[in-house]
Amino acid sequence: MHTPDPHRHTPVPPVRPTRRAAALALAAATSAVGLVVAAQGGAGAAVQGSLAADTQFYKDPTSQVVKWVAANPGDSRTQVISKRIASQPQGIWFSNYRPDSVTSDVRAVTSAAAQAGQVPVLVAYAIPNRDCGGASAGGAPDLPSYDAWVGKFAAGLGSSRAVVVLEPDSIALTTCLSAQQQNDRFASLARAVTTLHAANPNAKVYLDGGHSTWNSAAEQANRLRGAGVLNADGFFTNVSNFNTTANESSFARNVLNALGNPGNLHAVIDTSRNGNGPAGSAWCDPSGRRIGNYPTAATNDSAVDAFLWIKPPGEADGCAAAAGTFVPDIAYQLAQNAPDPSTPSPSPSSQPPTSQPPTSQPPTSQPPTSQPPTGNASCSIAYRANSWAGGFTADVTVKNTGSAAISGWTLRWTFPGDQKVTSAWNAKVTQSGAAVTATDLGYNGTLAAGASTGFGLQATYGSNNTTPTAFTLNGTACTTS
């Protein structure tokens, strides 16, 4: 267990209890039948994805992997982990039962995300008897206390868009509960959905959908219905698991079919470790796994709102280390044989989606980035830094405020402190002394009048992380916002 910030949360992503292994063969057979159902009936499902394809999810600058990369610039694994994991948005877990601080903990994330123009993925994980007493045991002492905790969690949501992943395993895993206890838990989850939506109507709330090799689609649909899914935005699947994106998408369609395909419901799928599919029945830190689809709302699947990294890649299940502990060897193994975020591939599949904008290298079919910029620049720059002791990330938004298009851009500024850039995404960033130059990557080089693009960087600092205030775009001074 780890504590990245005593005022925030201690993520403890759920792990797969061994008692599930005995049911895998039967569940897999059920899933195979479900695939046939999906093929026959899924195409006509009356569902539409409810998240815009260009949704940008929030990258937490205090995540364990970001801090590890910043603290280990000379490690042979750092470049791969930085490019393929640390650069990506991931779920932010609220798993410590701290009713006195949860509102401010949530607000710290949602406020930072709103300022960056991004959508946070918040994982609420405090249901009583969590994980049925397994490796991720814990939670609120009782349901009335949990209801109150959810109210305080909701109070931190603000009014901007957010994704709430509500209680992994809480609906699929109930073997430790009596029938009455299960009914009481489901009623509490239904109240939680209402509370979260009332606090922030712009929040998308997803309930526990299990995964494709667990409960059948019909059984999971019945449980979801009892937990108030018809008033939610849908359900999530495959959290902390390894089933392929294709199988999970088919399973999600089967669940939606069993629910009657209500138009307001969709699925989100955890693709953080499913690039190679499952390792047989092994669920706890198995070797030979790989990251799957990079996080995106551009799923090309009307039933699936997003592929998300709900379980942060590299954080242990509880076998290689305590649950939730970042283990660089695990992260490196997941990332080393994966494509870079810019590599196009079909979607859905076990590979990153084609419609996700590249985050490191431009596609080969794009014009070279060395072409000279054209178009007079009239510009506005938003520079948002998220700092911790000795390091920070910054999200930079470049907006063309002029009346003509800009074809190719170069942004320059000078750090007022002792900041040193260590990595970047969505732009090529170089530094000479305090002077920094960021150039487009080809695919994001053309900015129509009024259009904007963004890139990010990670850096270290010693004693001074003062925000730069003077920027030029193609040699013309920009305003700041």
Please outline the helices and strands.
Blueprint: H1 24-41, H2 64-71, H3 78-86, E1 92-94, H4 102-116, E2 121-124, H5 143-155, E3 162-166, H6 179-199, E4 203-208, H7 217-226, E5 234-237, H8 245-258, E6 266-270, E7 304-308, H9 328-336, E8 379-388, E9 391-400, E10 406-407, E11 410-414, E12 420-425, E13 428-432, E14 435-439, E15 446-447, E16 452-460, E17 471-473, E18 476-477, E19 479-480
Parallel strand pairs: 1-2, 2-3, 3-4, 4-5, 5-6, 6-7, 8-19
Antiparallel strand pairs: 8-9, 9-16, 10-15, 11-14, 11-17, 12-16, 13-14, 17-18
Helix pairs in contact: 1-8, 2-3, 3-9, 4-5, 5-6, 7-8
Secondary-structure element series: HHHEHEHEHEHEHEEHEEEEEEEEEEEE
Q: What CATH architecture of the largest domain do you see?
A: Alpha-Beta Barrel
Number of helical segments with 4 or more residues: 9
CA radius of gyration is 22 Å
How would you write the strand order of the largest sheet? 1-2-3-4-5-6-7
Percent strand equals 15-25%
CATH-assigned homologous superfamily of the largest domain: 1, 4-beta cellobiohydrolase
Q: Provide the CATH topology of the largest domain.
A: TIM Barrel
Low-confidence stretches: 1-48, 343-376
Count of distinct strands: 19
User: Biggest β-sheet, characterized?
Assistant: 7 strands, parallel
Gap between N and C termini, in Å?
A: 39 Å
Mean pLDDT: 84
Highest-level CATH class of the largest domain: Alpha Beta
Structural class: alpha/beta
Helix content: 10-25%
Shape, principal axes of CA atoms: globular
Describe the structure.
The protein is of the alpha/beta class and 481 residues long. It folds into 2 domains: 18-336, 1, 4-beta cellobiohydrolase (TIM Barrel), CATH 3.20.20; 379-480, Immunoglobulin-like (Sandwich). 24% of the residues lie in helices and 19% in strands. It has helices spanning 24-41, 64-71, 78-86, 102-116, 143-155, 179-199, 217-226, 245-258, 328-336; strands spanning 92-94, 121-124, 162-166, 203-208, 234-237, 266-270, 304-308, 379-388, 391-400, 406-407, 410-414, 420-425, 428-432, 435-439, 446-447, 452-460, 471-473, 476-477, 479-480. The protein has a 7-stranded parallel sheet, with helices on one face. Strand 2 (121-124), helix 5 and strand 3 (162-166) form a beta-alpha-beta unit. The longest helix is centred in the middle third of the chain and has 21 residues, at 179-199. It is globular.
